[in-house]
Specification:
The strands form 2 sheets. Strands 3, 5, 6, 9, 10 and 11 form a 6-stranded mixed sheet that branches. A 5-stranded antiparallel sheet has the order 1-2-4-8-7, with no helix packed on it. It has 217 residues and is mainly beta. It has a domain of 132 residues: Sandwich (Immunoglobulin-like), CATH 2.60.40.10. It is globular, with a radius of gyration of 61 Å.
């Protein structure tokens, strides 16, 4: 009987032990590790002055552009004037002035009706106190034989430049149509006038000094 009771108690303890809940083992905590910590710090630096060691910019060399313009058509030749023949100024001998006019000059030795040069300037300085005006007279002589002499004609009053100097611009049209020669001498003389318009005196004939043409040679 005692042996049976012992077996029952032993069986009950065994059942109780099997029925009791099994406690899960506690989880293992990770071991702490040494992780480096990086701290970022933003530093704002304020400029205190403009740097002076920066070299200035190097200037670029100038760009030269050459433009070539091709002519589209042939331009007409320039018309020569008395200014173009200033280098060919002709001084008339004062002996031909005959004490009436001095420093007589002609701006060239040739002019024309239809070709260059088309004009020239004649100047002279009055040598007598009574002369207050001057008039230019001319005639045409055939060239080179000098067999034909036209009558003398007035080209008009000369322009007073001051200090007794008188001048006249003579053009190809100045010569009267009836007197024009295709090639001839334009001979002239200066006449001094007083206040009343009367003739005081005149120069010698200034001959074979200026050539006149109608057309180009």
């Amino acid at each position: 009987m005692k042996k049976l009771l012992f077996l029952v108690l032993a069986f009950g303890l065994t059942v109780t032990a099997c029925a009791a809940p099994t406690q899960a083992p506690a989880p293992l905590l990770p071991e702490p590790t040494q992780t480096p910590v990086v701290l970022l710090q933003t530093v704002v630096v304020e400029a205190t002055q403009v740097p002076t060691d920066v070299p200035p910019p190097t200037p670029l060399p100038p760009v030269v552009v050459t433009v070539v313009i091709q002519p589209t058509q042939q331009s007409a030749p320039p018309v020569a004037t008395s200014a173009d023949t200033a280098a060919a100024l002709i001084a008339v001998d004062n002996l031909l002035g005959k004490g009436v006019f001095s420093n007589i000059t002609v701006s060239g030795n040739e002019f024309s009706l239809r070709c260059v040069t088309r004009e020239l300037t004649i100047t002279g300085t009055a040598a007598l106190a009574d002369i207050v005006e001057a008039e230019l007279f001319y005639r045409m002589v055939d060239k080179p034989k000098a067999l034909y002499y036209s009558e003398w004609r007035s080209a008009g009053k000369m322009k007073a430049e001051g200090n007794g100097v008188f001048s006249m611009l003579v053009t190809g049209e100045t010569v009267h149509p009836d007197l024009r020669l295709d090639l001839g001498w334009f001979e002239f003389q200066l006449v001094g006038l007083n206040k009343g318009g009367g003739v005081v005196d005149r120069t010698q004939k200034i001959e074979q000094t200026v050539t006149y043409r109608i057309d180009c040679p």
